[in-house]
Amino acid sequence: MTQTLEESRAALLEAAAALADPSLVAQSSQLLHQCYRHTVTEDLLSRRPEDLLGAALSLRSLASRRNPGTPRVRVFTPTVEHDGWSCGHSVVEVVTDDMPFLVDSVTAEIGRQGRAVHLIVHPQMVVRREPSGELSELVDADVNQRPSGEGIAAESWMHIQVDRMSDQQDRARLAQRLERILADVRVAVQDWPAMTARARAVADELEHTPPAGIDAAEVADATSLLRWLADGQFTFLGYRRYDLRDDDVLQAEPETGLGLLRDSGEAAGDAAPLPPRVAQRARERTVLVVTKANAVATVHRPVYLDYVSVRRFDADGEVVGEDRFLGLFTASAYTWSVLDVPYVRSKVRAVLERSGFAPESHLAKDLLGALETYPRDELFQADVDTLHGTARAVVHQQERRKAAIFLRPDTYGRYMSCLVYIPRDRYTTAVRKRIEALLVEAFDGERVEYTTWVSDAPLARLHYVVRVADGHSLPEVDQSELDRRVVDLTRTWEEDLAGAARAEFGDERAAAVLTAYGRGIPEAYKEDYHPRVGVVDLRHLDELGDQRVMGLNLYQVPGAPGQERRLKLYRTSAVSLTRLLPVFTDMGVEVIDERPYEFHMASGQTRHILSLIHISEPTR
């Protein structure tokens, strides 16, 4: 009888346990089942029993002693000769206290180091340790129940197989970097309650003592957003309080840092004055600033940190500092309706009111739809003027089915946010990459991130964030020229053919030729020839008829070797190269390549092009 997957799994683990020392079979069986209980069965069945046992015992060895609050990390390449087992990859082993964000933070760092992950085994273990940190028992209990008792704790053990690393220094660097990442996770998780409480406290301060001269609605937006973030819509990773001095120095207040900013305070006199543009922004009389930080998160997701700054004011309404929160909006924060998200909903309502569209009109619904699908980060960061101009343009763009680009420079000049809308049927990976290359060139970008949104809407949306190198400024660009180049990159071959045909033939004849041949042009031909060349070839094909069954075109491609010529044969019927080769041989022509194309006309007839390349001129 054929074994089920679960029966095969049990048999494999039993076989692995049987390989242990006879006196340790029971303990090894427990270890194996605890280590691999959440591993996908197919991943287990592809491995040898001795390798499963060796990996589990290796992880158990790393965990044998660990000081409280200190992770243990090892990166090595196991071999049968040295370790008694192997896996074909290098292995990252981690033993640490059980906390959120461990696996995604560790694997993100491995990815940043250019290593692919091939297998993750992540048992959450309940262990008993002696005061010295020595492991005395693996407790057979569910980690989610958080069993209590002297020396008992929940731990995360990880066995991660990565691309093979032959250099010992590379392995040591990765281990060192992972220890720093785990330290970041620890302080972020430990200080999370304090950071959440601080967000609520700042909201209460704003509400009970609103700053002088600031609109009450703006203060209400800020307090609502802070409480919304504290209610689970923000992963708090860092907090610190800063004072803005008269000399434009933003000085960290001692003993206020939490999470990733716990140890980031500068001693008095160490902080440099803010750049003029940043200093000007820092003194603007606005309560809330939501933007992106310069740093990529080391905890949870490897994306740029979200930066929420709540400014503090003196009795005269002048900015004197800020409460800075760093973190990441949660996944659920991106699914709320824009009419329900604090701070964002005020902007959306202002855009809808400013549009002048009747509330129940088709245009108003389209405008709201454009805002609902707008990149959420942009809704937080962009001002009402920018949102209004872009969203209205997008609504009208859907009717035109034409590509368009909308730019928003970062408040502090560190990056350019580029929203590109193109007809959905023109979106391809190749188009995305071409637009990305154009934007990197235009803004002298050092790094670029992108997201795409494609639905049943007429337009696909691409959002690029092009970052310049530290210390550099965004260059000035001609947006009309950039818009034209984006349109060119998203135009179809057929559109360019139609334009070239009108320029060559005039509107009337162009329409007739395109009607006759337009839908019957083979895809291989489109890949090989520019539409302007296509117009020339269509003219030759159109001249064929009952009295003329073949045409010729001898030409040289610019930039080709001096002796290389190309010849195209236009025919009403196909012809094989075998029949033509003797003729060319007699003429002293060596044919080095040939490509046939068959055109299907609207009338049901066919036309043929045979493209030949030869490397010597014909004898005269």
- Strand segment tally: 20
Class computed from helices, strands and strand pairing = alpha+beta
Approximate helicity band: 40-55%
Looking at the structure, what is the overall shape? Answer: flat
Cα(first) to Cα(last) distance is 81 Å
Radius of gyration over all CA atoms, rounded = 33 Å
Work out the helix count: 20
Mean pLDDT: 90
- Percentage of residues in strands: 15-25%
Oligomer: single chain
Characterize the main sheet: 6 strands, antiparallel
Low-pLDDT residue intervals, each spanning 5 or more residues: none
Task: Characterise the protein shown here.
The termini are far apart. The chain has helices spanning 5-18, 25-36, 41-45, 49-62, 80-83, 102-112, 168-208, 216-233, 276-282, 344-355, 362-372, 376-381, 384-400, 429-442, 479-490, 493-505, 507-517, 523-528, 531-542, 577-586; strands at residues 72-76, 90-97, 117-121, 124-129, 135-139, 152-162, 234-244, 250-252, 258-259, 288-296, 304-313, 319-329, 404-409, 415-423, 447-453, 459-467, 550-555, 565-571, 591-600, 606-614. The protein is an alpha+beta fold. Strand 15 (447-453) and strand 16 form a beta hairpin.
Task: List the defining traits of the structure above.
single chain, 620 residues, alpha+beta, 6-stranded antiparallel sheet, 20 helices, 20 strands
Task: Summarize the helices and strands and which ones pair or pack.
Blueprint: H1 5-18, H2 25-36, H3 41-45, H4 49-62, E1 72-76, H5 80-83, E2 90-97, H6 102-112, E3 117-121, E4 124-129, E5 135-139, E6 152-162, H7 168-208, H8 216-233, E7 234-244, E8 250-252, E9 258-259, H9 276-282, E10 288-296, E11 304-313, E12 319-329, H10 344-355, H11 362-372, H12 376-381, H13 384-400, E13 404-409, E14 415-423, H14 429-442, E15 447-453, E16 459-467, H15 479-490, H16 493-505, H17 507-517, H18 523-528, H19 531-542, E17 550-555, E18 565-571, H20 577-586, E19 591-600, E20 606-614
Antiparallel strand pairs: 1-2, 2-6, 3-6, 4-5, 4-6, 7-8, 7-9, 7-12, 10-11, 11-12, 13-14, 14-16, 15-16, 17-18, 18-20, 19-20
Helix pairs in contact: 1-2, 1-4, 2-4, 6-7, 7-8, 10-13, 11-13, 14-15, 16-17, 16-19
